[in-house]
Specification:
Length: 248
């Protein structure tokens, strides 16, 4: 512990007393540096406020401001009555910001939503080889059941957000990459939250979208990367058309 503290102290920058905003930003950086140097993991406790003040050489107000900032970002988790812990560092803050940006852009030709949909497509296409490799030669009854549910729901003229999320999460669950799964889930959530608020309807093409999920799964299990790419494109075609119609 002593060695880690010495390393931390050499990394902590000096801050002039007159720069309040800079001091708070620096304290935020120092706390993040402390977490890294000490090798702390999500769920590990941080020192008390008084201990952080002593170790960082800053005031209580600077520590409190920094902790509030880091809590908003999910880097730390403040448990009232228990202390402050290293957070799970989810993408919740990113999702909230993108949802608000998407709704705010309603009068801006839906540009933010187009950006989100484009990123979703990039992620699906970009992970195609990995997804296909992980599913080739397998049969996945859970994913096939979700496809059947989507097709049935679409036949009733309804959307299927829960099944859609479970399907995409299930495809990525076979990969050893937690971050890409979080990113896909984050952009999926922005997508599904923003679309209803903008009155954008793609219900007429729900059947194509539902069946495209089945084509994606069949292609992956068959080891056909090209067919998987084609199915991803078919999956997003209805939404691309709906978004394109708003340009005119």
């Amino acid at each position: 512990m002593a060695a880690a503290q010495r390393s931390f102290r050499t990394l902590a920058p000096e801050v002039s007393r007159g720069a309040g905003t800079s001091r708070r930003a620096t304290t935020t950086g120092q706390i993040k540096e402390f977490i890294l140097v000490e090798g702390l993991c999500p769920g590990d406790p941080l020192p008390t406020e008084a201990e952080l003040c002593e170790r960082l050489g800053v005031s209580r107000s600077s520590v409190r401001e920094a902790v509030r900032t880091l809590s908003t970002l999910g880097i730390v988790d403040v448990r009232h009555g228990h202390g402050t812990y290293v957070g799970a560092m989810s993408l919740d803050a990113l999702v909230e910001m993108l949802v608000f940006r998407g709704v705010l852009s309603a009068g801006d030709d839906l540009r933010a939503l187009r950006d989100v949909v484009e990123i979703r497509q990039v992620l699906d296409h970009g992970m195609a080889i990995r997804i296909v490799a992980s599913l080739t030669g397998t049969f996945n009854p859970d994913l096939h059941a979700l496809v059947d549910e989507m097709v049935a729901v679409a036949a009733e003229g309804r959307t299927f957000p829960e099944q859609d999320r479970a399907f995409h999460t299930g495809l990525l669950a076979r990969l050893d990459n937690a971050l890409v799964g979080q990113l896909v889930s984050a952009f999926w959530e922005v997508h599904t939250v923003v679309v209803p608020t903008l009155g954008l309807s793609v219900a007429a093409d729900m059947d194509q979208t539902a069946r495209a999920h089945g084509l994606m799964l069949d292609a992956a299990e068959a080891g056909d990367v090209r067919a998987f790419h084609a199915a991803v494109t078919a999956h997003y075609d209805p939404l691309d058309r709906a978004l394109g119609a708003t340009r005119s």
